[in-house]
Amino acid sequence: MMSPKNIETKKKSNLVKTLQWVGVSVISVLLIVYFLVVDTRGSQTTPIIGTVNGTPIYYTSTSPYGRAFRSIETNYQQRGIQINNELYSYIEDIAFRSAVVTVLLDKIASKNIRVSDNLVVDFMKMQFVDTNGIYNDNAFQSFIKNTSQSEKLRIQKEIKENILSQTISAELFDNIKVNSLETERNYKKTETKRDIEMAYIDAASIVENSEIPASDLERYFNENKNDFAQADISYIVLESGGVADNLYKTLNDDITLFEKNAIEKSIDTNNYRLGYVTRMEMPSRSFADSIFTNSKTNTLLEPIYVNGNYYVVLLNDIRLPENYTDVKTDILRNEYLNANMNALLEAEKTRQSEILKNAFDRNNNLASLNNNGNIKYYKPSSPFYYNQGRLNTADGNIIPESSEEIFYRRVFSLDVGSVSDVVKLESGIAIIKVLSEEKPNMNEIANLDSYTKAELKNELSFYAENEWQNRNIEKARVKRNNIR
Questions:
Q1: CB-CB contact of 265 with 276 (8 Å)
Q2: Residues 6 or more apart in contact with residue 119 via CB below 8 angstroms
Q3: pLDDT per residue over 128-175, tens digit each?
Q4: Maximum distance among all alpha carbons in the chain?
Q5: What would the pLDDT profile of 339-352 be if each residue is shown by its tens digit?
Q6: Predicted structure pTM score
Q7: % of the chain exceeding 70 in pLDDT
Q8: Is residue 470 a contact partner of residue 200, using CB atoms and an 8 Å limit?
Q9: Which of 343, 370, 341 is nearest to 201 (CA)?
């Protein structure tokens, strides 16, 4: 058997070191998904969420999209953040971008790097090492024995793809050389403070709270009817996976016991029969996927794990609603907004820009415009740095969009004492005046310790990577399908 270090590559020691470093992070993210998350799609046709230069991006738990989606979703869940449809739409956007970048990087890496099968196997085995560092070969051999050849090949492909993309990313962006002029320029940028005042209109809030004509909702429903498939389900919610597995076996033998067990054992006894619900109303994306990837109705599904609980689900029926009124209004409205938000928001920004400009032309005192229609006035509690993060006013109100890169670019591109034209930010429009600026003492840069200089290098690496992503995504032929 070949050594796990047998990597064929056109690069030498730096690449090997990078691969060794990448290995741990790749496996911790990727193989946990393979081994601990049930892929309910089985041998069915794998759906495609989009393409990059003709290369498909699959909508599965093991694809670049699926791994990114689950990683972001898990991060929110661990922080106790309730994930609604709007946030899921945001996660989808970030996960799709991550998948596009992975494919683009993989194309570069595959021309220069080859990863041996033995290394992939060793990475697989790492998932069968317990917290005491003891490798369980029996568990690994059981996995090999009970996993189909096609599934093992798919796992191998996904591992190699992730290794390649992360390796080339590290080679491109982690080894940036930073000279003294770049350090000084970055130090000046990050250590300069500015004080501003701003008149702002939240265009996104206006769109989200606007009335949508019933005719628009009906047209959207008719054009996307398949997205609103409804499942008639009943479920039993349990806190223990072992109890859920045992109950599933019992009910699989005698399904007539379902209602009795739902009433006696479920921690949600009042709502065990949901009736017809869309995927948007279900506890999580993975839960919905488990439901709608089943072709059989009147069937009991294996326990589904969601947010700390286990669901034993009875799938009674699946249907397509006939009319838009068969879907809950708030669900249909949210989906309509999600699908059309970019166009609606841009149109609303344009309308509100005229309103804000006219108000300022009549009275160029920004503070006096507060509460003039939708206009709000903000002033930070103190001068702030570039990319400092979310800012507050003196009375504790959050300054909108002050955590966005575009906000800081606008603020720090103006001359001190100048007033901007109406500027479009991510979610609204604003007029900004720069009141003052505090420049750093450049003599202090000589006293920066090695940790601070490393932080500066990391920041430059981040900007370089982000710029590479933006430039290459813009050049690529990217197509995204509506999978909801």
A1: no
A2: 4, 5, 6, 7, 19, 23
A3: 777 677 888 888 888 888 877 777 776 777 677 767 766 766 666 666
A4: 81
A5: 999 999 999 999 99
A6: 0.55
A7: 79
A8: no
A9: 370
Amino acid at 49: I
